[in-house]
Structures are given as structure tokens and as C-alpha cells.
Amino acid sequence: MEYFLQQLINGVTLGAIYGLIALGYTMVYGIIGMINFAHGEVYMIGAFIAVTAFTALGVAGVTFVPLALAVVLLVAVTFTAAYGWTVERVAYRPLRGAPRLAPLISAIGMSIFLQNYVQLLQGARVKPLAPVIRGGFELLHANQFSVQLSYIQCFIILATVVLIAVFTLMIARTPLGRAQRACEQDRTMAALLGVDVDRTISLTFVIGAALAAVAGVMVTMYYGVVDFFIGFQAGLKAFTAAVLGGIGSLPGAMLGGLLIGLVEAFYSAYFSIEYKDVAAFSILVLVLVFRPSGLLGRPEVEKV
Amino acid sequence: MPSAVDRLAVRGAGQLAGRLRDAAAAAFVTLVLALPLVGLRTVDQGGALVLETRWDWVAIGVAAVFVGRLALGLFAHLRLRVPRVVPRVAQGVAMPWLAWAVAGFAVALPFLPFADRYVIDLGTTLLIYVMLGWGLNVVVGLAGLLDLGYVAFYAVGAYAYALLALNFSLSFWICLPLAGLLAALFGIALGFPVLRLRGDYLAIVTLGFGEMVRIILINWQSLTNGPNGLPSIPRPSFFGLPFERAPAEGTTSFHQFFGLDFAPEHRLIFLYLLILALALLTNVFVLRLRRLPLGRAWEALREDEIACRALGINPTNVKLSAFAIGAMLGGFAGAFFATRQGFISPESFTFIESATIVAIVVLGGMGSQIGVVLAAAFLVLLPEIGREFAQFRMLVFGLAMILIMIWRPQGLLGHREPTVRLGRAAAPRP
Amino acid sequence: MSAPPLLEVADLEMRFGGLIAVDQLSLTAAAREITAIIGPNGAGKTTLFNCLTGFYRPTGGRMVLHHPNGALALDRMDGYRIAARANVVRTFQNIRLFPGMTVLENLLVAQHNTLMRASSFSLAGLFGLARFRRAERAALERARDWLARVDLLDVADLAAGTLPYGAQRRLEIARAMCADPVLLCLDEPAAGLNARESSALGALLLEIRAEQAIGILLIEHDMSVVMGVSDHVIVLDHGRKIADGAPAAVRHDAAVIKAYLGEDDDAALPPAVAADLRAGQGGA
Q1: CATH homologous superfamily for C1-87+181-284?
Q2: CB-neighbour burial class of residue B80 (10 A; exposed 0-12, middle 13-18, buried 19+)
């Protein structure tokens, strides 16, 4: 029971990170109907910028943790958002209206490019980072097993909840959110009604990248190691999460992320750690076969 | 008159100012992008990270983007004048000629004076990718199903060959069809549940499937020897004659039988010709299929699935056939890969391989057979040309994929040849 | 005792959540006849076609096709099987050709099932056996015949997507005919055609009726076409049948006039159609 509880906490933490990345996928898919293949790399870049920022703060002698955290988040979000914007501008915008596979290929190219770009500039070796926040709560202690909720896990879960709340309000209430929903429904019509479609799509990429950057900061602090390859695996799982939840659905992306995080935590705890990725994909296949629109997605009515 | 000239001059100045602003904006974006990743570098020193700075690189990069963007802006002005008719004519007329020339050159290659070990080896690698490209072309180019896990079938073929040859000592010519068959069965097993999914879902499920196969290969130690891979896979023989300096007791080797001096190139040339034959066979097979009702149904399905259903075509069966045939061809290529390398490990079957093969098909121009050859040549040779810059090869590879797509979104040869023409078919009836 | 009609629909119902698109609809259509289905937009005409051709599974009712090979319950067949086994073939309101393939290839794809059998599921085809070559020649002949009838022989080797609109409409009908229909369902074939093209379409439909032993269901807003070719007109409104009879009778039916022109009903009728209907009434 205690072990179960511990895995639950770990799974939720992992799920929050996947969910944040999945939001980026689902938003972009919603608006341009494309898998943003480079999104995983954008997240990886967020993690690298976080490492750099933490190191720089260490050099500058900033030791007050909340301040350091705020600065790192701000820096990572700003610069990563710039990368998100550029990805759209370079790999997607010139191909709007091109055959369906063309932007996907350019996005795969972008993903390969960014991976190697970071590897060349920052080195192929794993970057270790000293823990920023130590300690935690001991929730339970029984049968010589203690259930820990570390401060960092608290931070990840709380930050995610806050971000989701802000984000949901933004989509529902602001003109940008309205423009986004309009573009999702019908891009041509939105343009005719005066929505700046290019700008809306750009901003979608920027927001997605910002959320991925937050996930990058979290993962850096949580695991303490980062390398140039983390984007691929995490991207794949986050996309799985987005599809699982129902692509295009924002709550679905969070739910999907949570489920994937839980499956991964429990599967590695109770079965085998080697096959945890296989388990996640098997679930994806099962969901797609039995409920192709995902858990919270709207079923698509075929237009004849 | 002077007023018109004046106006032109003013407009020119305005355009120049606009270009400068545009270039400055690009330079600013570059600055923002470069600051954290180019300007700063974290270095691991005794377990702790320290910072290094490279502001000079940032300055160079920003300046380069400014100049480049400005030049591009001025060039774009001139580019409009270039007539766009030329490439289309070249495509239509030069295609059959080009195909025969390429095939002729490929057959002659190993006997040309400059063909050393390196060239033949590179040619063999290229042909493997051509064959994989032609196989995947059935799925992506003709049937329009985006398969991002094609490498899984390549892996199944390779491991099937290796395991059959190692455990049961079966010869290459028996293992080859078995490997293809097994890969096709995998294709059907995967395709059955997922082929009714929409395009992008299919892409992600196939990608996941590719990763799953790799993970299983890594972890199923008892069968696949895990990450260490399978060594000493038997090499193919020339219809029973091994390519060895000193053949085992009672067997004659290739050079003895033909009275030649032993040369290690014999095997290389044989392997090259073998994959060339397999690839050409694949090509003929796919070209023929394309002209059959099944091939036309693939293309029709790519164009409009709903219309296909309204005409009584079973979409699942048609897709499944494309998936299975593509998988089978991938399996053949995998079997060849295993026998050529003599050693396989899960390392050879990563997502980057799938991405490369998809890129070959799409860059070549979906469905174009000769386009696949050109794209494969480009993608395989590009990293070789830039050997000195080995560490930059994947960087350039990624960049090239983006630029080619922007330059020609329909692929290098985006021209579709009809499968049948009324002109020819309308010959007077007997 | 006469033979049963080709198509019998009884109490057909199609609901989408709370919306009832087709409501307790019963109708029949005979072979060698053109049965027009008219009604204001949203009356459920295309939904009826979608049920008949297996794109939707009806939520209630029966649809029986008296095929030459025996009666078939269309409501229990799904998707492609209705076209493949029951030979109910349709065209689409918004034209669905294979735009990148040539005109001729479009007509060969329509003969897929016949050719597939002849090619022994590609094996005979791969080896170019005589049996398959014969079947392919026959398929080409058939395609050629239909191309000549719809006046598209000259453009046979062009990509279907490059044809002008009217030619695409004709091609879609030719493609449907190549699929060997027993019941042909045409969804607004005259939409977007000019007056001359519409009258040519009418002539084509009459020719098909005269030569082939098939039934034609025709959804159409162009009243000049409907009144000119139909043997039988069924009027739908809000998913229900409000009139059924000979064109002349339907034209003067009070319920029909009310559905189309009535003030209390906000049926979205294009002005041109309304004008046509009035002209039809005055001129007859």
C-alpha cells in the first residue's frame, strides 16, 4: 500500500510534465491539423536553457531559491518561446497549403537539426545539475517504508495546476483564445472575419513552446540530468498522451499525460522497467482501436 | 518623364529600407536564439557545471544572418524573372532516358576503373536505401499511408534472416523469402487494428510500433542477444561457392572454381550486384503492381477514400495489401543488410532510419521511382561528401530536409505518370 | 401480380442525437424509372442517400433492394459492400473524383472489383496472363464507351482535377455507371451547371433510363431538370415525405408549395429555385 502510494505520487509528477508537453502538441494539432514533430526538441531546448540559467545564477551567487526559480522560469520561457516561434516561421509557414506530408517532413528535418544543433553546441555528454530544492514531506511511515512527497514534486504538481488554470482561462476568455478557437473551426472563415490567422498560429506555437519550457525546467530540477536526446522520447510519449486524451482537447491532453505518467510509474514498479515504453504504446494502440477520438475528444462525424 | 523616374527611385529606396528592416528583424531573432545556446556553454568540470562564453560566435552568426537575409531579399527580386517552364519539360522528356542511364551506370559501376572498395561499399549502402525507398513508396507514395515505423520491418527482416541462418543453418536463398514473409505478417498484424485510423494517428502509431520493436530487440536477451547484437551472421555464397581464401574441407570457393586469384573485392562486388538485382526486381514488381487494379486502387485510396467506398472498394483490404507488400520489401532489404554486415544490433534500427527512408520517398516526389533514386543518392552521399565535417552531417541533413521541402514541397520529381493511356489502349480492335 | 419495385424503404429513421434527419420515411423506386427526391435544404435528402449507400447506419426502419440476384437488406450491410454486392452506386453533391488520376483511370478504378477478380488478386496480373489482359481490354472498352457518351474522350488522359466543373460532374456519372449499378443515386448532378449543360444532363439521364435496366434516384434542386426527366417525384421536408407522385401532380400539391414558399416556414430555398418552381407552375 505504501509502495503503491509512492508510485502514485511519482506517476502524477511524471504525468504533469508529460501533460504540459502534450498541451503544445494538442494546441498545434488543433489549429493547423499537423503533428509538430519538433515540439519534443523545443522541450529539450527548454531544459538546456534551464541548465544554463541555473549555472549562471550559481556563478552570480544567487542562493535564494524562489528568486532563482522565478528567474530561470522567466529566462527559459522567453528564449524557448523564441525557438517555438522560429520553428513555425521556418518549417511550417512557408509550407502552408503544400501537400499534406511536406510540413511533416520539414518538421522532422527541424527536429533532427535542433537535436544536432544542441549536441554540437553544448556537447553530447549528460549535463548533471546539483539539486536546487532538497527535502520533502514524509507522508507515511509504515512497514519500514516511508512515502515521500518531495518539495520538488510539490512544486511540479502545483505549478502545473496553476498553469492549467491560467491557460484554460486564457483560451476561454481572451481575444487570443477566441481567435484560436475560431481558427480551429475554420481557418478560411476566421481570416474572412478579420482574425489574423498567421499571428494566431505563431502565438499558438509560442504558447506551446512556453509550456514545454516550463516542463523542461521541471524535468531538469526533478532528474538533475539533461542530454540532447531527451526530446525524442518525451515528445513521443507526450504525443501519445495527447492522442490518448483526444487530440485537440486541452483537458484531454492533461488527462492523457497523467495516465501515461501513471502507467509508466506503475508498470516500471510492478512489472518491468525495460518494457515501460512498450506498455505506454500498447495502451495508445488499444485506445485508438476502440475509441479513435481519444478519451475526451469529440467523435468526428464523417462529412460526405 | 522625370517624375516617373523619381517615383521609381523613391519606391526603390522604400523597398531597400523595408529590406533593411526585415534583415534587422531576422538578425534580432538570431541574437535571441543564439544567446542562451551559442553564447553560453555549460561545461562539466569535476561533476559541477561551469559556464563558458562564446560571444564572438554570436556576433558572427547575427552578422551572417543580417547579410544573408538582405542578399536573399535582393535576390528574390531577381528570381521572379527566371522562367518556370524549364523543369517541367525536363521532367516529362528526360525521365525514361534518365532511368535507363542510371540503371546502366549502376550495373557497370563495379567494373569501372575508379570503383575501389569504398565506392562499391557506398554503392551497396545506397542501393539498400533505394530498395527501402521503393518499398516504402508503395505505402507512402502510392497508398498515401504515412508509415513512420518502416524500420521495424527492416529490423524484422534482418533479425529473421540472422536467427534462421544462425540457428538452423539455412542458406541465404531460403532465408530471404522467409524473412520477407515474416515481415509481411508483421505488417498485417500491425496494419489490421490501425489501418482504419486517420493519417496522422497512423503516423504516430507506426512510429510507436517502430520503437516497440527496437525496445523488444534490446530486451529480449535470450533471442536477440540484446544490445550486443548478433555477430558472425553467415555470408551469402555464390550459388554454393563461398567467398573465402581457404574454404572448409570438401568445398570449393569462388576464386578456386573460376580459377581466379583470391580477392576480397569478389564478395563486395557480388553483394553489390545482389542488392542491385533485388532493387531492380523490386522496381519492376512495384511498377507492374501500379498498373494493376490493385495499384490503381492504392492511388485512388490516397486521393479519396470516401469515393473508393462508394465504388465498392474495400479500403481495409487495399490498405492492408499495401502495408504487407511494403513490409515484405523492407524485410527483403533487412535480410540483405544482415548478410552484408555480418553483424546486426538494435542500434541499426532507430527512428532516424525510418525518418531517412520517409524523407527519401517524400523528397523524391511521392510515388516517383526515379525520384527515390535521386533522393537516396542525395541523402546517402551528402554525409559522405562532408566527411571532414562528420560531426555536422546530421545538422546539414536536417537542414537539407527543411530547405528542399520549402523549395519543392511536391518533391524533386513530383510528376505522375498515368498508369494507362487511352492513346495506347485505343489501338483498333482486331 | 407485378414484380416488387427495385427499392423499398419502409419507416426509415436517422437520428443524430436529438436531431431527427429522416423521420418514418417510406418510399419505393422502380427499375427503368427516374425517381426524383426534392425538398428544401435540410430536408434529409442527402442523409437518405447516406443511409442507402452505407455511409450512415440508420437508427430505424428497413431498406430492401430487389437485386436481380435476390432481395438484399441494405440496412444490414455496411460501407463498401453496398456498392460491391448490392450495386447501389452514388455520386456526391460536392464531386468526389480522384483528382490526381487521369479521367480514364477514374473509370478503371470504378471497375476495381471485376478487374481484381480477373487478375486473381494481382497474381494473374503480375504475370500478364491472357485472362487478365482480356478483362482489362473489356474494362477499357467500357470506359471508352462511357467517355464517348459524356463527351470526354478528348480529355481521357488528363488529370481529372484539371477538368472544368461541368465535365467533372459528367465524369462522376460516367464513373458511377462503370461501377455497374443496379440503383444509381445522383446527388445534385446539375448543381453549378449552366442551362445548356443542365439540359445535356437531362438528355443523358433519359438515355441511361432508356438503355439500362436500372433505377435512378435523383436529388436535384434544378426544377427544370426534375420536371423534365422524372417519372416520379418524392418531396421531403424536415425528414418526412410530404408528397409523392407524378411531376405534374406534385407541382400543384398544396403541401409542397407551402414547404417551398410558405411564409410560416423558414425553409432556406435558394431564390433561383423558387423562381424555377414558379416558372414551372406558370408555364406547364
Answers
A1: P-loop containing nucleotide triphosphate hydrolases (3.40.50.300)
A2: exposed
